[in-house]
Amino acid sequence: MPVLVMKFGGTSVATLDRIRRAAKRVGVEVAKGYDVIVIVSAMSGKTNELVGWVNETSPLYDAREYDAVVSSGENVTAGLMALTLQEMDVPARSWQGWQVPVKTTSAHSSARIEEIPTDNITAKFGEGMRVAVVAGFQGVSPEGRITTLGRGGSDTTAVAFAAAFEAERCDIYTDVDGVYTTDPRVSAKARKLDKIAFEEMLELASLGAKVLQTRSVELAMRYNVRLRVLSSFEEPSDVAGTLVCAEEDIMESNVVAGVAYSRDEAKMTLVSVADRPGIAATIFTALSDAGVNVDMIVQNIAEEGRTDMTWSCPTTEVARAEKAMAEAKDGGVINYQELIADTDVAKVSVVGIGMRSHTGVAAKMFRVLSAEGINIRVITTSEIKISVLIDRKYMELAVQALHDAFELDKAA
Ligand code: ASP
Ligand code: MG
Fold first, then answer.
1. What fold, for 3-175?
2. Mean pLDDT, to the nearest integer, of 52-76?
3. Could you please report the per-residue DSSP string of 354-406?
């Protein structure tokens, strides 16, 4: 029988009543003839609560015990979902990650899935079980310890199961009804997309759109898993939601598919660094060793052998970057005058595979921002995206103006 993967996020299993509604949807697919693998998140808010308990108990916690605690929310919903299905006379049972087993690396709290053997679950399907309910977000390390996949990781569990079982589709049920051209809370003209290409979704997810965990999109792209994002609060239908799929499966699309933003950016500038070969290597090695995720980088024109080096990184990593630079200065590795951190910035990006074949997108983006009187502080581009760093107070305005200018409210 064909296999379907259905993933229910935290809000879709937040109460027993919602679990019942989700189970009904599963029942509909079972009736169509699918063997279903259901991946569940913890009830909404649960994982945050568990993380809070760990931090309160042990600020410098043992990451293995963090995972043991934080993974438990999913165990509860997996069992409850299986019970609910059984009450509906659908043959179902729950599986925790280690029981499958979902084999991962030992990088606790951000482990990667290495392998999902299919034999255990397939054997049960062969015996008449119709639904395997699997706790998302968790696995087991080579050392036999419980691991978790990073926040939002049950999306990745779902895609990995879809790839391993060669599922017909992987449906991600969430609290929004699909992927939008931008955040509807920022622009009232945001439009739901029927389809979006893997690469566009990957950029949007890593640029701040929160609908899917970035790694789940990476995996879907690698294994060509047809991924659908849809709301668990709307009436079921075959055309609902947004299909994330290969570029070839999209006939027409706008040059720009979406506008993403991230509030959580900081701009840091090392003022007056000695401009010599190897200086960038030294600075960014020190930052990377300190675990700072640098995104944009600008090196200014040198004057009299000194230059300014600017980069952006998440606001939460500013303190770490400051410490690393101060240590490098004390150790005589880097010589600079001062380090300035500006945490009042935001990143706004336009994304679209159409940029590969259309010129002028960057110029248009800059004209739109300039017409609104918004100063651009840093720019970066890739083949299919352009990002700018601007003052945070202009973020909403920039998103709205770009959404209007690229006419994202209209389909191609
Ligand atoms: N419950 C986990 C989290 O909140 C995993 C997930 O829901 O995807 O991050
Ligand atoms: Mg999520």
1. Carbamate kinase (3.40.1160)
2. 96
3. GGGT---HHHHHHHHHHHTTPPP-EEEEETTEEEEEEEGGGHHHHHHHHHHHT
